[in-house]
Design brief:
Blueprint: H1 2-16, H2 32-35, E1 59-70, E2 73-81, E3 91-97, E4 103-110, E5 121-128, E6 134-141, E7 147-154, E8 165-166, E9 185-186, E10 192-193, E11 199-207, E12 210-218, E13 224-226, E14 232-234, E15 239-247, E16 251-258, E17 263-272, E18 277-280, E19 299-306, E20 313-320, H3 326-332, E21 334-335, E22 337-338, E23 342-346, E24 353-357, E25 365-376, E26 381-383, E27 392-401, E28 410-411, H4 421-427, E29 436-445, E30 455-464, E31 467-475, E32 490-494, H5 498-501, E33 504-512, E34 515-520, E35 525-530, E36 542-547, E37 553-563, E38 568-569
Parallel strand pairs: 1-21, 4-38, 28-30
Antiparallel strand pairs: 1-2, 2-3, 3-4, 5-6, 6-7, 7-8, 9-11, 10-11, 11-12, 12-13, 12-14, 15-16, 16-17, 17-18, 19-20, 20-22, 20-23, 23-24, 25-37, 26-36, 27-33, 27-37, 29-30, 29-36, 30-31, 31-32, 33-34, 34-35
This protein binds 2,5-dideoxy-2,5-imino-D-mannitol (DQQ).
2,5-dideoxy-2,5-imino-D-mannitol binds near residues 90, 139, 240 and 299.
Length: about 575
């Protein structure tokens, strides 16, 4: 109790300097009354709830919305069903944080109140106006089930928690024009100002099978006019949740979420601010084969520019859906988590983005074990022992391929060039013996040596002419003894030249009960997977290194940390210390 009181005092002191300070420190925690987002008596099964990936106490969540930092407080809004664990009754739930790790739930910020959003408040974004006022633009579902775009402004700009939002009567500010698909017109981006002072934003839509990123302009954020042509389009069905932003001041990213396949892809390109023309890099795939933030369960993502740090950074949020059954979601009372926020940068060669969990998450690291220079012989595995539990862990490892002359590497089948990495990994799962690899981690493994349950995160190295082709996979086929689960194998190629790295390749995996979130080669290839072990739970969960390849592999280093739980609370009057 003394610690809690002391923490509270420190928090208040920090608050006194926060309103004018650029760092994300809170002014004061919300009161219990303010924080009670919704009431209900549903019993939630806590078994596989996450410890440090964001999720509310119960019910359904999906897309992250309107993320921003205001007066030193991070705001995460997200799509939420206040009435149950399936999608529906959608409002913007609201949580605040000073560090992107611990969160306090506030009451929903935006919910149906008016004819222009009576049937739901769907996804959207926040924009910081030059005077520091944040404005939210979101999709409202109106009385005729048309998708229209509405604005909302904070009621009280002196409240760093931005608890209340006002929707002007002049909404909607953007409606689907004649001939447009009114039930596929949604998810406005953060706006930006062009050299002519006009605001621009992009809305996702489709014309038959063609996905479109429609550009709109406005002088006052109130009256908006469509541009003559879309910013970009593709033959990939409805484009949801577009995101458009600069990286490294040299390139722009256009990311879209594909409603048809439920994965996302992005292009990198040149944006001419005078003509509003976006030209994707012609050397990169643009469409279903395009680059992805994440080759796993990661959707409806959105970035924001975090200017609160000395070195500003772009931070990415994404939603990870459940992959158990709807009946199981209803039974457990919750569905959906947010991935760990990731810092996004451009790779050195400018050909892809690189993502890394925000550094703040490392504050949760606890007890740790280290492995250095251990050779894993062909067909062998070993346990990384010493953690009280690895069901909530952060594992950083580097593997060294010993077969640098590629004697043992399997030839990359030219037929695979026409298919994606996932198909290769399905054909060559974690237990299919290979030449170089599969090697990597068994996480959330049962304590019988991972015989009954394990999720494999691994690499497989092929030779293609004189070059290595590196594949990263997540194979959950043995992840659970439970029935009725969707257990897709996920995979992506990793752009790493093993000749230059001395045969080394890095893997970081964030394990969180039902989340396995992995970063290959320092964030070049990322895969998030949802799994539901029945044996490898709590302190029964084990961690192994395995090598199912013919060639030996060395673990040059491995650090595995237990992760403390984040403090995510819906009714805390005061923040607790960890
Ligand atoms: N989810 C929202 C839509 C968006 C979709 C509705 C993507 O605005 O297009 O909850 O998951």
């Amino acid at each position: 109790m003394a610690i809690r009181t002391w923490t509270w005092v420190v928090f208040l002191l920090l608050a006194l300097v926060s309103s004018s300070s650029p760092s994300c420190r809170a002014a004061e925690p919300p009161s219990p009354q303010q924080a009670s987002a919704d009431a209900g008596d549903l019993t939630v099964d806590d078994g596989l709830r996450t410890g440090y990936h964001f999720q509310p106490p119960k019910h359904w969540i999906n897309d992250p919305n309107g993320v921003m930092c205001y007066k030193g407080v991070y705001h995460l809004f997200y799509q939420y069903n206040p009435k149950g664990a399936v999608w529906g009754n959608i409002v913007w739930a609201h949580a605040v944080s000073t560090d992107l790790v611990d969160w306090v739930m506030l009451p929903p910020a935006i919910y149906p109140t008016a004819p222009f959003d009576v049937n739901g408040c769907w996804s959207g974004s926040a924009t910081m106006l030059p005077d520091g006022t944040p404005v939210i633009m979101y999709t409202g579902i109106d009385g005729e089930n048309r998708q229209v775009q509405n604005v909302a402004y904070p009621k009280d700009l002196s409240d760093p928690y931005l608890r209340e939002w006002v929707k002007p009567d002049y909404n909607p500010v953007i409606s689907p024009g004649p001939g447009m698909n009114a039930t596929a017109f949604r998810d406005p981006t953060t706006a930006w100002q062009g050299p002519d002072g006009l605001w621009r934003l992009v809305i996702g839509t489709k014309d038959n099978h063609r996905g479109l990123a429609m550009l709109y302009r406005s002088r006052d954020f109130k009256r908006w006019a469509p541009a003559n042509r879309a910013l970009h389009s593709g033959d990939t069905g409805m484009w949801e949740c577009p995101d458009f932003y600069p990286v490294n001041d040299t390139k722009h990213v256009l990311k879209v979420s594909l409603d048809l396949t439920r994965f996302e892809y992005y292009t990198l390109g040149e944006y001419d601010r005078d003509t509003d023309t976006y030209t994707p890099d012609p050397s990169l795939a643009d469409g279903n084969d395009g680059l992805r933030y994440d080759y796993g369960n990661f959707y409806a993502s959105k970035t924001f520019l975090d200017t609160s740090k000395q070195q500003q950074r772009r931070v990415l949020w994404g939603w990870a859906n459940e992959s158990d059954s709807t009946a199981a979601d209803i039974r457990k009372g919750w569905a959906g988590v947010q991935a760990i926020p990731r810092k996004v940068t451009l790779s050195l060669d400018g050909k892809q983005l690189v993502q890394w969990p925000v550094a703040e998450i490392e504050s949760l690291r606890g007890a740790h074990v280290n492995v250095t220079d251990v050779l894993v012989k062909s067909g062998h595995h070993f346990e990384v022992a010493g953690l009280a539990s690895s069901s909530q862990a952060d594992v950083e490892a580097a593997f060294q391929v010993m077969d640098m002359d590629m004697d043992k590497a399997e030839a990359f089948d030219p037929a695979w060039r026409a298919v994606d990495a996932q198909a290769v990994c399905v054909a060559r799962g974690a237990d299919a013996k290979g030449g170089v690899g599969p090697f990597g981690l068994w996480v959330l493994a049962s304590d019988d040596g991972g015989q009954e349950e394990r999720t494999a995160v691994f690499f497989r190295v092929f030779k293609d002419g004189g070059k290595h082709v590196v594949l990263m996979c997540n194979d959950p086929s043995l992840s659970s003894q439970a029935d009725g689960l969707y257990k897709p194998t996920f995979a992506g190629f990793v752009d790493v030249d093993l000749a230059k790295t001395g045969g080394k390749i890095a893997l970081r995996t964030l394990i969180d009960h039902s989340v396995v979130e992995s970063f290959g080669e320092y964030g070049k290839t990322c895969i998030l997977s949802r799994v539901y072990p029945t044996k490898a739970v709590g302190d029964k969960a084990r961690l192994y290194v395995f090598n199912n390849g013919e060639s030996d592999v060395k673990v040059t280093h491995l650090n595995a940390y237990e992760m403390r739980s984040a403090n995510i609370t819906s009714d805390a009057a005061e923040p607790t210390s960890r």
